[in-house]
Design goal:
By secondary structure, the protein is an alpha/beta fold. It is built from 5 helices and 6 strands, in the order βαβαβαβαββα. Strands 1, 2, 3, 4, 5 and 6 form a 6-stranded parallel sheet that branches. The structure holds flavin mononucleotide.
């Protein structure tokens, strides 16, 4: 069964709410193993067919735990080429993190990125959570049809 991994960081819980909704949407698609993680070893990234990263924006950047995961994966020469990847995150005023993550996934790891990074202003409302569920569903549907 293809695996969809959601890796996220959240300091005050907003991106975590998004992550839970992404997982909920992904789990609505039969035939996909959905795993939600806060910390991952680089090799765990290799086991997934799709990886969705969640990071809030702090100081115009992704958070350090997410940056460390990407740096460790690069150092360990983890092979993610051709896997599906996307990103989401809560923000307050500029919201760069998901876009920055997508750039790394595409340019450093050769992943097939989807969308332009889903951002939510502070705490996601019901329609925001619906968008998160849709994102999880879209990615899950992509990997079952691969
Ligand atoms: C110290 C600090 C720095 C922040 N820097 C940014 C920033 O550069 N750009 C931005 O859009 N939001 C910024 N924010 C707002 C957070 O992204 C926002 O509060 C978000 O909802 C936090 O998500 P989380 O609950 O998942 O940690 C900052 C917040 C704090 C407390």
């Amino acid at each position: 069964m293809p695996k969809l991994l959601v890796v996220y960081d959240s300091q005050t819980g907003n991106t975590e709410k998004m992550a839970n909704a992404v997982v909920e949407g992904a789990k609505s698609v039969p035939g996909v193993e959905v795993v939600l993680k806060y910390h991952v070893r680089p090799e765990e990234l290799e086991e997934a067919s799709a990886i969705i990263f969640g990071s809030p924006t702090y100081h115009h950047d992704m958070t350090l735990p997410i940056k460390h995961i990407l740096e460790e994966a690069a150092r360990a020469n983890v092979q993610l080429h051709g896997k599906i990847g996307t990103a989401f995150g809560s923000y307050g005023w500029s919201g760069e993190a998901p876009k920055l993550i997508l750039e790394v996934l595409k340019n450093r790891f050769g992943m097939r990125t989807i969308g332009s990074g889903l951002t939510m202003l502070y705490t996601p409302d019901n329609s925001g959570l619906e968008q998160c569920r849709d994102l999880g569903k879209i990615v899950a549907e992509k990997i079952v049809s691969m």
